[in-house]
Amino acid sequence: MERIVEVFEARFGDPYLDPTAELTFEELTAAFPGVPVAELEEGLLHWTSHSGERTLSTKTIENDGYETRVWYIHGLARHRIDPSSSSSRHVALG
């Protein structure tokens, strides 16, 4: 999750307070060129649906008549992820 947050921070500064801080799957794929697409999909699914405190959300937006799925950071402050937690190391993205 920390690596995902870093991608948002590099692009948007403070993604927790920026309502325009949304990334498409293509943008996330480009941000993680060494991560296989299936592994990236698994990591995104994990972090948007895990049962702990959620910090990554997804929604569908309409753009030029087409629907696009985007991911965004959910919350008003950066959440600290416990590195000793087994879920924080889930897939190659945590």
What labels would you give this structure?
Arc Repressor Mutant, subunit A, 33% helix, alpha+beta, 94 residues, disordered C terminus, globular, three-stranded antiparallel β-sheet
In short:
By secondary structure, the protein is of the alpha+beta class. The protein is 33% helix and 20% strand. β2 and β3 (66-73) form a beta hairpin.
Structure write-up:
By secondary structure, the chain is an alpha+beta fold. It has one domain: Arc Repressor Mutant, subunit A. The chain is 33% helix and 20% strand. The protein has three helices and three strands, in the order αβααββ.
Q: Strand order within the widest sheet?
A: 1-3-2
Q: Whole-number average pLDDT?
A: 81
- Compute the number of helices: 3
What is the CATH C level class, in words?
Mainly Alpha
Count of discrete structural domains: 1
**Count the strands?**
3
Task: Tell me the series of helices and strands, N- to C-terminal.
Answer: HEHHEE
Q: What composes the largest sheet?
A: 3 strands, antiparallel
Q: Helix fraction? A: 25-40%
Overall geometry comes to globular
Which stretches are poorly predicted, pLDDT < 50 over at least 5 residues?
A: 85-94
Q: What fraction of the residues are assigned to beta strands by DSSP?
A: 15-25%
Query: What is the radius of gyration computed over CA atoms, rounded to a whole number of angstroms?
Result: 13 Å
CATH topology: Arc Repressor Mutant, subunit A
Which secondary-structure class do the elements indicate? alpha+beta
Under the CATH scheme, which architecture would be assigned?
A: Orthogonal Bundle
**In angstroms, what separates the terminal alpha carbons?**
4 Å
